[in-house]
Amino acid sequence: MSQPYNGIEEWFEVGKELIVVQSEEEALEAYSWLLESDYERQVIGERARERIFKVHTYHNRASQIIDVLRSKLNDRVNSAYLLSSHEKAIVKDGATDRLVNY
């Protein structure tokens, strides 16, 4: 059960793996429905658990962070030409180039 959150549909399939409610009244109705419906409660819980263990693990998050960092590093390396071992570089900055000391 969750309140609306931007991007939540990227993490879970709303209605199948997670119930999203807009108000306290909707939350009470949804909780009552889940308490009365053993099958639906079990199925939604199992789907959510499967998604969590498949996608939302520390290993997956670490891999995503490494991918982002690699991409940022590659962007930086591709935009800078090292001139010497003194860590000076020409940085491509749109239409102009500039000399930068790192």
Topology, element by element:
Layout: H1 8-11, H2 24-36, H3 38-55, H4 58-78, E1 80-82, E2 88-93, E3 96-101
Antiparallel strand pairs: 1-2, 2-3
Describe the structure.
By secondary structure, the chain is of the alpha+beta class. The protein has one domain. It contains four helices and three strands, in the order H-H-H-H-E-E-E. It has a three-stranded antiparallel sheet. 2% of the residues are buried.
Number of helical stretches of at least 4 residues: 4
The Rg value, from CA coordinates, equals 24 Å
The number of E-state strands comes to 3
What is the subunit organization of this protein?
Answer: single chain
What structural class is derived from the secondary structure elements? alpha+beta
Count the domains: 1
**Coarse morphology:** elongated
Q: Kindly report the spatial arrangement of strands forming the biggest sheet.
A: 1-2-3
Fraction in beta strands: 5-15%
Helix content: 40-55%
Q: Compute the separation of the termini in Å.
A: 48 Å
Uncertain residue segments:
none
State the major sheet.
Answer: 3 strands, antiparallel
Topology order in helix (H) and strand (E) letters: HHHHEEE
The pLDDT mean sits at 83
Task: Describe, in short, the structure shown.
With 102 residues, this protein is α+β, with helices and mostly antiparallel strands. The protein has one domain (8-101).
